[in-house]
Amino acid sequence: MSLSLQLDASGDLKHFLTVEGLPYEMLVSILDTAESMTGVTVRSIKKVPLLRGKTIANLFFEPSTRTRTTFELAAKRLSADVLNIALDSAATLKGESLLDTLRNLEAMYVDMFVVRHSHSGTAHFIAQHVAPHIRVVNAGDGRHAHPTQALLDVFTIRRHKPDFGSLCVAIVGDILHSRVARSQIHALNILLTGEVRVIAPRTLLPVDVESFGVRVFYDLEDGLRDVDVVIMLRLQHERMQSGHLPSEYEYYHHYGLTRDRLQIAKPDALVMHPGPINRGVEMSSSVADSPQSVILEQVSHGIAIRMAVMSMALARTPTTP
Amino acid sequence: MTASPEYCASAALENLIRSVTDRLPCCPDSAIIGIHTGGVWVAEHLQQQLPGRLPLGTLDISFYRDDFSHVGLHPEVRPSRIPFDIDGRHIILVDDVLYTGRTVRAALSEIFDYGRPASVLLAVLIQRDGRQLPVTADCAGDTVKLQDNEQIKLSGPSPLSLEVVRLP
After folding, report:
1. What is the location of CATH 3.40.50.1370 in chain A?
2. Is 3.40.50.1370 the CATH classification of the domain at A3-145+300-314?
3. Peptide linkage before B157 cis (omega within 30 of 0)
């Protein structure tokens, strides 16, 4: 269902809702387009006229700084006009339904919605109900997917280690609640990554996790052996209250990435994190700031990936409906 | 498809090099920018043949095209690389074929996003009829007249060869 919603009849990107089921060629095409976008972000005038006259609305029903900011910056680098609408504090509180909010924005001639919502499936729902000329990009929905984050992660890996077939990538932390991890696993499997591992306590793993095509480790030190890339996930504080974990200290003791533990991985292993980092919970400061850490590169690459996705989805659309 | 002997790539290249060389003394601080893909091939030949080994940049104008809403993004966009400061430079802008003039318009827009050149000289291997914008080449290797359903295509990078392709 997602695929027919995401791609148009000729196989081009229409909406970008999930990595799951994305054809290999499409995923690589997004990464290649993002590669060319990186050139725009480093020159003196950081702007191209590709989406001039398009209006993009960031609909964030859930707070976000990094994702919203990089989507906004990406749209502005492409010369689109951007509306930032924080819906946790606006119309929805006044009782307006989601569809009414969308219809109002459509009436303002918006061309694209970038949607972040705490409920899985919201971006799909919106894509199914918007006017045919409007495009939808998922900026994170519940536990389901965060496709642009996953693509910026594999983009970052590809820049350092382009041969995915020979790579072993470990994702460490709260897999159970993580939309980022789900999208990363799909992206890594589509790119035919040699081995994808998940490392977490049993309480933070979905019951059917093996069916995602990953190797499961409960012990961090076992799981880090011979790894080329370590992706640490953010631990949300509310997990402590919900009984999934005893304490942050306990988590760091067993699953925190320290210098000593990083040495178990390959000597040139990359350290990644979608941010924001909890220093001393997911990893030590010395690891976060080490030369192996590419965490800030991930942020920069987020702009290029979002530029690629937005321009590909808005290609061949009329400026005014 | 027919290949006509009068559209000889090496002769056109020689003409172009001669024509650009004549213009060079007036432009001491010059640099070459080739437009992907054919223009880059011609620009590389120019760089090798012109005196002084001028710096070479490449431009992919996909993000500046005026037909994005109709045809979308080119599937293989290559990053533009301008490894020198544009400000105050005399730029030799190189393309393989000058036809409608739209590519040159897009290229000029992109160049000005990198800086303010002192001048831009347009050098093309072949100029053909069918201009849709007020754009003229300063230096051209050859001038040809083609039917509306004909296109002239350059193959390269080395050696360069030209052929006229008849569209269905």
Report:
1. 3-145+300-314, 147-294
2. yes
3. yes
Q: Which of residues 75-104 of B touch A (CB under 8 A)?
A: 75-82
Count of structural domains, chain B: 1
Contacts of A25 in chain B (CB under 8 A): none
Question: B54-74 pLDDT, tens per residue?
Answer: 999 999 998 998 888 777 787
For the domain spanning A147-294, the CATH number is 3.40.50.1370
The one-letter amino acid code at B111 reads I
Domain hosting B12: range is 5-62+85-166
Put simply, whether A11 touches B (Cβ < 8 Å) is no
- Express each pLDDT in A49-69 by its tens digit: 999 999 999 999 888 888 999
Contacts of B113 in chain A (CB under 8 A): 43-45, 47-48
Q: How far is CA A97 from each of CA A122, A128, A186, B69, rounded to the nearest angstrom?
A: 13, 16, 32, 32
Measured between beta carbons, which residues in chain B are less than 8 angstroms from residue A48? 63-64, 110, 113
Sort out which chain A residues have CB atoms less than 8 A from B82's CB and list them: 43
Q: Is B66 touching A (CB cutoff 8 A)?
A: no
Cβ burial A97-124 (10 Å sphere, 16+ → b, else e) = ebeebbeebbeeebbbbbbbbeeeebbb
State yes or no: pLDDT of A30 exceeds 90: yes
Contacts of A35 in chain B (CB under 8 A): 79
pLDDT in tens, B103-155: 999 999 999 999 999 999 999 999 999 999 999 999 999 999 999 899 999 99
- Partner B contacted by A35 (CB < 8 A): yes
B73:A50 CB<8 A: yes
Quick one: CA torsion of A193, A195, A200, A202, rounded to 10 degrees?
A: 120
* Residues of chain A above pLDDT 70, percent: 94
pTM for the full predicted model: 0.89
CB pairs under 8 A between A and B: 53
Sign of the dihedral defined by the CA atoms of residues A91, A94, A100, A104, in that order: negative
What is the reported pLDDT for B2? 44
Here the CATH number for the domain that contains residue B41 is: 3.40.50.2020
Tokens found for residue A78: 């492409």
- Name the minimum distance, in Å, from the CA of B4 to any CA of chain A: 36
Using the beta-carbon criterion (under 8 Å), do A319 and B60 form an inter-chain contact?
no
Q: Considering only A209-213, B63-67, B86-90, which range has the smallest mean pLDDT?
A: B63-67
DSSP notation for B65-78: -TTHHHH---TTPP
